[in-house]
Amino acid sequence: MTVTAPTAYNVPFRLDRTRGPRIVRLVNVGHETVSSLRVTLLGSGLLVPVCSATLGPGQSMALSVIGPELVSSSIAVVRWFRPSREEYLWRFSF
């Protein structure tokens, strides 16, 4: 019996930092619509928006960081579900 390992799943997002450092666009460069998208900031400040129902291929969402100063040690955690209902997490730093 041969067991085949599952194919790796690429993170479907690209960060557009052209309006940074306080505004970052999260772009869905994948081939699937992601759902229950939620972004959480770990560190000082507030991240707006924190959630969106869905983000289809080619669509983007602007994330605004609000706070007295943007600390380079802050991390954003992105959570989403694939159409198969599998949950994924990805993080990025500012």
Describe the secondary structure blueprint for this structure.
Blueprint lengths: L12 E4 L6 E6 L5 E9 L3 E3 L2 E5 L4 E7 L8 E7 L5 E7 L1
Antiparallel strand pairs: 1-2, 2-6, 3-5, 3-7, 4-6, 7-8
Distance between the termini: 47 Å
Adjacency order of strands in the biggest sheet: 1-2-6-4
CATH architecture: Sandwich
| Discrete helix count | 0
**Structural class of the secondary structure composition?**
mainly beta
Question: What can be said about the biggest beta sheet?
Answer: 4 strands, antiparallel
Q: Look at the structure and give the mean pLDDT.
A: 86
* Residues in helix, %: under 10%
Low-confidence stretches: none
- Counted up, domains total 1
Topology order in helix (H) and strand (E) letters: EEEEEEEE
Strand content bin = over 45%
Beta-strand segment tally: 8
- CATH class category: Mainly Beta
How many whole angstroms does the radius of gyration measure?
15 Å
Task: Identify the overall geometry.
Answer: elongated
CATH topology term: Immunoglobulin-like
Give the name of the CATH superfamily. Immunoglobulins
